[in-house]
Amino acid sequence: MKIRALVCAPFAVVMRRTAMALMAVAGLSACAMMGQVRMGPVSKMLKPQPDLCGAAALIDVVGQPFTQLADYKLAGPLRVLWPGQEITDEVVPDRLNAEVTHDQLILRLSCG
Fold first, then answer.
1. pLDDT score at 61
2. What integer pLDDT is reported at residue 75 of this predicted model?
3. What pLDDT does residue 52 have?
4. Where are the domains of the chain?
5. In angstroms, rounded to a whole number, what is the distance separating the alpha carbons of residues 59 and 108?
6. Would you say domain 39-112 falls under CATH 3.30.10.10?
7. CA distance 37 to 45
8. Which helix (H) or strand (E) holds 24?
9. Which three-class secondary structure state does DSSP give residue 68?
10. Residues 52 and 93: beta-carbon distance below 8 Å
């Protein structure tokens, strides 16, 4: 009977740890499916959005240093996207995305 207890106790510990690890993986998978964790390059992650951030009205600043955006009252937050930067697929409708060059010049403006 003592031998059985010695064999079963470690097995129970291993099973408990395995179950906890599987629950953690399942939880992370659920987050990824909700779109909160997915990441990728800017060109693949930014889908066209309605102009709720006022990007169309700021067309004159394209090609200018992104710091010029400080002169404008924006509808929502500003996200500056640098070359090679990865972003999440989270969409904030009134957020202005400013894709910039290494020289800090604005390449594109979009909402999301």
1. 96
2. 94
3. 96
4. 1-37, 39-112
5. 9
6. yes
7. 12
8. helix 2-33
9. helix
10. yes
pLDDT in tens, the chain (112 residues): 555 554 454 545 444 554 444 444 445 444 544 545 577 878 778 888 999 999 999 999 999 999 999 999 999 999 999 998 888 888 999 999 999 999 999 999 999 9
* Residue 59, amino acid: I
Tell me phi and psi for residue 96, to 5 degrees: -90, 125
- Count of CB atoms situated within 10 Å of the CB of 106: 20
Q: Quick one: pLDDT at residue 46? A: 82
Burial environment of residue 28 by CB neighbours within 10 A (0 to 12, 13 to 18, 19 or more): exposed
Helix (H, G, I), strand (E, B) or coil at 16: helix
Q: One-letter amino acid identity for 97? A: N
Three-state SS string across 56-67, please? Answer: HHHHHHCCCEHH
Which is nearest to 32 in space by CA: 91, 95, 89, 79? 89
Taking CA atoms, 101 is separated from 15, 56, 84, in Å, by 52, 20, 10
The pLDDT value recorded for residue 42 is: 80
